[in-house]
Amino acid sequence: MALKDYLGEQFLGILASYQGRGIVHHIGVVYLRRNDQIRFFIPRGHALAMDSLVTLHLDNRTGVDELDAELRVYRASYKGRIVHIDENWITVDPLECQLVHGLKLIEDIRAPGYEYPEDTRAAQALPLATLSAMAPPEEKDHENKVGVLTTLTPEQPHTTVLAFLTSEDDDVFLIIEPGTFKLSVLARDPRCFFVIDERAKFTFDEAIHWNYTIMESVAHEIPKGTPLYEQVRTAFIIKNPWEAGFFMLDGLTMLHLPRKAVVMAGEPRPLP
What we know:
There is one protein chain. This protein is mostly beta strands. It has a single domain (3-111, 124-266), classed as Pnp Oxidase, Chain A (Roll), CATH 2.30.110.10. Helices cover 11% and strands 40% of the residues. It has helices at 3-7, 181-188, 204-207, 227-239, and strands at residues 10-19, 22-32, 38-41, 53-59, 74-86, 89-101, 104-110, 146-151, 158-163, 165-166, 172-176, 191-196, 213-218, 220-221, 253-257, 261-263, 269-270.
């Protein structure tokens, strides 16, 4: 089956791409074709180049306001190459894409001869959070249950959807299961971006102009058993009760993403 059979033909998506010595994010509209090629419309324009490697976060959670521990929506980190540009439109051929529903792999797409680039960077312990206490939870984000984390893999970024918690001080808090790909990437480079949007609340027609925030950060680990860990765990479960079971996992990692900058869509961010 084609990706459009699971995700639909038209929906909102998030694109990330290394451009020059930096990274850029775009918010736009995804149009899936039967051959899994993507036409992506960027309303605000772009400076993406032909043959650029791009990653699009795809999911069908528009209008979904109830989630559970298995996150029963179709979602994928679609890695591709730009093959055509027409003003605000780009066309992307797929290189690699794993479509997941809940905890199950549904489709594994790989272009002939494509090999995912080896990551030879040394893994290190994440920096520890220096925050002593959590500010009150941000009420405006209470209904926004999940956001998109961008991590910095070789050649092109990786994206994944995660439940989150925010505070009035613009802190983002995440929990990540042990042994995950995103955690291994953060151990090699803790720089990351987190995108918060309003799609849990709106239909597609309403959401085309939805408010979104792209936050640049460096991931810090919150050690288990610290007062901050307990504060975040309590507030996290109140906001995302379907995540409570994850706190029983051995090796669960809690992250603090302090705000480094709020990034506009289309704004290149340097990666020295």
